[in-house]
Amino acid sequence: MIGVCLEISLPRDWYVNPQVLGEFYERFKDRPHEEIQRFSFNQGLALGRRVVRELGVRGEGGEALAAVLREVLRGEPTAKILLVERDKVLLRNSGFCPLMTAALSLGLPWTWLCKVLGWPFFHGIASAVNPRFDLKMVKRRAKGDPYCDHLFELGEGRLILP
Q1: Which domains, and CATH codes, for the chain?
Q2: Which backbone phi and psi does 104 adopt, to 5 degrees?
């Protein structure tokens, strides 16, 4: 996923304001998923690159990605890194999620929000560490699981959507 989509935007505080996600959905719900995913991926990539630079992260494997994810999620105590290996990281979130909050409070399509915003955003963050990281959602609350498990593994750099 590369490219720039300048027509799509979100304010910087979107993650604490479900209403912004409601407005985003109404404005872009009929756009091609790939276009929104590209936008979200690029947002995550930019954040990931900034964190890599600010922390001085070295390496391209699991330890480097875990360091970046810990920094990105430091304000969310229920997001935990459960596994770090040379080529793999498992991130579990069982608490706050802005997409879940918007879906439940505003009646927005939860899976749509995750598919076009959440998962590509996290894939972008991982790609800042190493563009070969795949992201696969092993568990997800939108389908009834008690938490979301994001599995990052070195591979082909794919976002593997359920």
Answers
A1: 15-160 (3.30.1380.20)
A2: -75, -40
Query: pTM value?
Result: 0.90
Task: Return d(Cα 104, Cα 18) in angstroms, integer.
Answer: 10
Whose structure tokens read 């027509």? 7
pLDDT tens over the chain, length 162 residues? 334 444 777 776 666 678 888 888 998 999 999 999 999 999 999 999 999 999 999 999 999 999 999 999 998 889 999 999 999 999 999 988 888 988 998 999 999 999 999 999 999 999 999 999 999 999 999 999 999 999 999 999 999 987
The answer for residues whose C-beta is within 8 angstroms of residue 87's C-beta and 6 or more apart is: 61, 62, 153, 154
Instruction: Quote the distance between the C-alpha of residue 67 and its chain's center.
Output: 15
Q: Is 20 helix (H, G, I), strand (E, B) or coil?
A: helix
Tokens of 132: 């070969």
